[in-house]
Structures are given as C-alpha cells and as structure tokens.
Specification:
alpha+beta, 7 helices, 30% helix
Length: 216
C-alpha cells in the first residue's frame, strides 16, 4: 500500500496569483520563492518521511527554481518541468542580457535552473507535485570516475552534471529479446515496477522538457 503524503508536504509553495492575472502582461516568469527551502526540508532532510537518499549529492548544489506561466509544448506534448545547466552560448550582448536577468531574479547566476509550469503546479495533487520536483532533481546526478565510483571536485564536493534517464531502451527490444538484452538499467526499472510505489503512482517523464530534449 502506497504511503500517504505527509501533512507538511502539502504546504508546498504555490505560484503567485499575479501569474494568472489576465490583465497582467509583464510577468510570465517569476522565481519560485521558498521552493528551494521546501525541497531541502521535504526531500533532503533525513528526518522527513519523504527523504530520498538519492539526492544527497545535491546538498551543496547551486539550484534555483522558476515558475513559468507560458504554455510549453514539444513533440505535441505539454511540458510541465525542465531542468537545465545554466550556460550562455551566445554573443556578448545576449550573454549579458541573460546574466542580468538571472541576477535580477536570484541575485546571482545559478549553476542549475528548474522551471515548473505554474498552471500545472496550481492544479496537480501533492503527490504529483512531489513527483515532478523529484523527477527534475534526478536529472542532476553525481558524475562517476574511471572506476565507476562517485566523482568529487578538488574541494571534496560531489561532481555533478545533467543526466538523462536510467533506462535507455525501446519497448520493442524488451518485448522481443527480454530485459537481459536491454540497455542501461532496464532490469532495475522492471524490478522496481513490480513493487508497490513508495509514495504514489504517477508518470511525469513524458511531460519533462529535459527528457524530450534528450529523446532520440
């Protein structure tokens, strides 16, 4: 039986009403104030019922969050979340404009940015919201060294980067040749799917912009 969402998880930050004011045409993106603190308390605090050890490498990661009230579709799918490494591969003026915007939003240029669909966040259930945020966090993974061990920087902090899904395989391959012939961690996914969900049963991957950008 799946666990119920703890009460404090339901106090999740909500997008500000200004994003949904039809008379407002100046604000479509705003910082998700309080969301970083909510993530730390809900998903990264060992005393939390929803603590996830898989995110322990993110304790010192420089991540910011943004609400977006602009509809985003890709490959005929609605995008409700996207995780990206903040980089500016453009000319000096474009780079300057983008850096200025980040500093106005967050007071600095963060290393990673997670953007969430404000309309979806306002309507979805608590479990769906937790799943969405965790899905985007999973895209920021700790890198591995030449011996497949967790990699660290010279300062002793986890070396992190953007990753795609654990499973990189086509359904047809698994159907025809079995899990043993599949790439990535397909066998582990199949094993996990046979168990009851720890929190709730939702599917966010098909609505993640990061996933669709990396889909072949």
């Amino acid at each position: 039986m799946a666990k119920k969402t703890p009460e404090f998880a339901r106090t999740r930050p909500a997008p500000p009403e200004i994003l949904f004011d039809e008379s407002n045409w100046t604000k479509h993106f705003v910082p998700a104030d309080g969301l970083a603190e909510w993530v730390a308390k809900t998903l990264m605090d060992e005393s939390s019922p929803l603590y996830n050890e898989d995110h322990k490498h993110l304790h010192y990661a420089d991540i910011e969050y943004l609400w977006a009230a602009v509809e985003n579709k890709r490959q005929m799918r609605r995008i409700v979340g996207q995780c990206e490494e903040v980089t500016f591969r453009c000319g000096a003026w474009q780079k300057g404009r983008q850096e200025q915007q980040m500093k106005e939003w967050f007071g600095r240029v963060p290393a990673y940015l997670i953007t969430l669909d404000a309309n979806y966040a306002r309507e979805c259930s608590d479990i769906e919201f937790c799943s969405l945020v965790e899905h985007e966090l999973y895209h920021i993974a700790q890198e591995r060294d030449a011996f497949d061990a967790p990699a660290f920087t010279r300062d002793g902090l986890p070396k992190i980067g953007i990753q795609s899904h654990d499973v990189e395989e086509f359904v047809g391959i698994v159907r025809r040749y079995g899990v043993g012939a599949a790439a990535g961690k397909t066998a582990a996914l199949v094993d996990a799917s046979k168990r009851a969900p720890e929190v709730g049963n939702v599917d966010i991957a098909r609505m993640c912009g990061t996933c669709l950008l990396r889909a072949a």
